[in-house]
Amino acid sequence: MIIKPKQIKSIKENKVTLVPKFISLDPSTYDFNWLSEFIELWDQGIICKKDEKTTPQEFLRGSYQIQHLHLHDKNAFIYLDFFKKMFSYDNHPYDGTDVFFSFCSSTGGSHKDDEDVFIISLFGKTIYRLFSSPSVEKDTNYFLEPGDLIYVPRQTSHRAISVGPRINFSVGCYGIRR
Asked: Residue 103, Cβ neighbours under 10 Å: how many?
């Protein structure tokens, strides 16, 4: 895990921060084979990010979420622990790591998270569109490839646009920084 001092400073100042090549990934570590084995082994619930009226034709175009990945995946736990310690977050019961995935190109809705979010691209390519706010000077697109990280401060409006199949870890820190 590599974060340069300038990037650490930017995160501590609550600015959206892109960290290219945060981790080095073997392409076969996190792929759809890993995802299907994880789902089968842990029988995790999957949340569809579209509404419940999704038609079968739209199913593959949805974005999906599995929560609490850090309880079952060693690396997810390590990332959560790393960010909490690196940036001195107080413990909070909602802190955790989720995985988001899409089977083909899709666009998530614009939203704001209640927590600081560290998103690590694991598979595929994703554009994160950040909208003008105190932490973003103007609307900006950030292009993530596997191994890249983006920090999105809480209450910063953003959306994910997958450029084909993708898998991302989302590490959420709800606690206050000391």
From this structure: 17
What dihedral do alpha carbons 25, 43, 104, 73 form, nearest 10°? Answer: -20
Alpha-carbon distance of 85 to 122, in angstroms, equals 22
The whole-model pTM stands at 0.91
Cβ-based neighbour number of residue 101 at 10 Å: 21
Q: What is the pLDDT of residues 139-164, one digit of tens each?
A: 999 999 999 999 999 999 999 999 99
Block residue for tokens 């759809």: 32
CB 13 within 8 A of CB 116: no
* Nearest by Cα to 39 from 73, 78, 80: 73
- For 23, other C-beta atoms within 10 Å of its C-beta total 18
φ, ψ of residue 29 to 5 degrees: the values are -65, -55
Instruction: Provide DSSP, 79-138.
Output: HHHHHHHHTTBPP-TT-EEEEEEESS-EEPPPB--SSEEEEEEEES-EEEEE-SBTTBSS
Q: How much is the pLDDT for 52?
A: 56
Q: Tokens 């953003």 correspond to what residue?
A: 158
Rounded CA gap, 155 and 168, in Å? 20
Q: Tell me, what's the pLDDT at 27?
A: 77
